[in-house]
Amino acid sequence: MNDLTGEPVYLDHAATTPMVPAAIEAMTRHLSDVGNPSSLHASGRRARRVVEEARETIALALDCRPGDVVFTSGGTEADNLAVLGVLERRPGSAVCSAIEHHGAFFVDNLPHRSD
């Protein structure tokens, strides 16, 4: 499918979503940095500061607390976190529609059925 200018329109955002230029720029600034944000040494503390500043920026944009912003490694992990969060607040069954992404059906340590 093409837009009005003839450019292709990307519709598979379930697989991956194109990054906006501002996100690419922000990420590119730190691609050569080293440091595990969980480490206590100087490069780890610098990495932690970058992560926490990003968390604060996102929280400000979303009008929420920084502690409410959770970074995940991808869609399946985010789906699992969302389902587990709902079940923690409302124990019992979770229902997913037949068109839900398959990652939402495989929450670790939860019984599930596909019928």
Descriptive account of the structure:
- Helix content is 38%, strand content 0%.
- The protein contains three helices and no strands.
- The radius of gyration is 19 Å and the shape is flat.
- The mean pLDDT is 84.
Structure in a nutshell:
The protein has 115 residues and is mostly helical. It is 38% helix and 0% strand.
Could you name the key traits of this structure?
3 helices, flat, 115 residues, 2 domains, 0% strand
Could you give the topology of this structure?
Blueprint: H1 21-28, H2 42-62, H3 75-89
* Uncertain residue segments: none
Order of helices and strands: HHH
Helix content: 25-40%
Q: What is the SS-derived class?
A: mainly alpha
How many helices? 3
**What is the end-to-end distance?**
34 Å
Mean pLDDT: 84
Inertia-based shape: flat
